[in-house]
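User: Hey, quick favor. My workstation is busy. Could you predict this chain's structure for me?
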Amino acid sequence: MAIVEAALASVLTLWGVLALHVRAPLGRHVSRVFIGLLVLSATLFVTTRLFDSPMRVAGAGLFALAVTPLLAWWCTLRPSNARDWLPEVSRLLSSVREGRIVTLHNVRHFAWYGTGLDDDCIERWETRRYDLDRLCSVDLLLSSWGRPAIAHVMVSFGFADGRHLAFSVEIRRKRGDRFSELGGFFRQYERCIVAADEDDIVKVRTNLRGEEGELFRVKMTPTARVSLLEAYLEEANRLRDRPRFYNTLTANCTTLVFQMARRIVPGLPLDYRLLATGYLPDYLARIGALSGTHDMATYRRLGRFTERARASRPDLSHDLSHDPSHDLSPDPSRSFSRDIRRGVPGVADGSDETALALPR
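Assistant: No problem, here it is.
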């Protein structure tokens, strides 16, 4: 029993140290002092428990005194939709459905320039209508930045008129926030679902932020496509009504998509690649969810669209990097979406109607 208690105390202490280091609720100096007291009390507690010291009651009391305010602070952290957000996440997506028509409010269609970060953008939020009967494709997009196992995941829905709408589960950063991968474990960021033109959300990553893009056509029935889109819209409406924290492990850009997909296709297996997002296409290939019959190396080679994105014209982001007052192009997004899909397996061979195949 003493070993179990010591192990639990050690885990709780490690969690507390990381939480205080990342969040620093009372400033860096005070947090460091509290971290020292927490570690000291935990060491005393573990030592007295393991060696059955007569000081074990005092050790337990000191540890409780250190942990209680830590847990009390943690319980005060509440997500909010009312903060000073960066422009790209300043509005929340919402939708209304009337029959087979869905109306989306706050679809993002920014023009980016300069670094493609923070305020280097011309804001444009749109209200759009989509006919669910004209939804004809679903694509998985990955954006990576030099680490093979880590990528940002987006899902794009294609319609018969040539439009594509990309959905992305993102942290909702405030002004002054620095991105921290650890912060996603400790309630540092709210989460949001962004629906945006590919000419915005995809192009800014490849053309200005220097990321690498890959695209894969996903095999889904028409009913499953609509259900996945509806799942995104329902989740966006829920986040509008009730804010939630982003969590790097349980509520990130991949796990939420998996949870939505599992509602549509029961039996989808769990896999480490749901966390190692750079390998997510390998998971989809294993369960037979990618269009075509290629090996993974071919899928990745044909799906890599970074150079096609940078060569696509009209290149609005390139113009704006020199002149932010440049007029917006009437609709550069369709040519961009077409260019990045050139040569991707399944895009032009009519294989969209194939149902998702599960492993036996």
